[in-house]
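User: Here's a structure from my thesis project, written as structure tokens. My advisor, Dr. K., wants to see whether a designed sequence matches the one we expressed. Can you design one independently, without my sequence as a hint?
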């Protein structure tokens, strides 16, 4: 799972499968890191969510379908 700033497109890519914090907010980033440290089981859960998201939205076939839909 990823930790990313809350700016497009990263916030949409990461979504619920990782952690997002406000750009420039070091305190919020520290809280995210602290939360991960204090709850290591979250890493496993977020990893599963990230895998499902990648397999659903970012495979070659799903990206090709999105591209065709744009045409």
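Assistant: Designed independently from the structure alone:
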């Amino acid at each position: 799972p990823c930790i990313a700033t809350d700016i497009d497109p990263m916030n949409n890519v990461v979504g619920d499968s990782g952690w997002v914090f406000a750009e420039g907010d070091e305190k919020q980033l520290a809280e995210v890191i602290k939360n991960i440290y204090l709850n290591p089981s979250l890493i496993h859960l977020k990893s599963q969510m990230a895998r499902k998201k990648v397999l659903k939205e970012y495979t070659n076939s799903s990206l090709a379908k999105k591209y065709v839909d744009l045409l």
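When you compare it with your expressed construct, this may help: Residues 18 and 35 are 12 Å apart (CA to CA).
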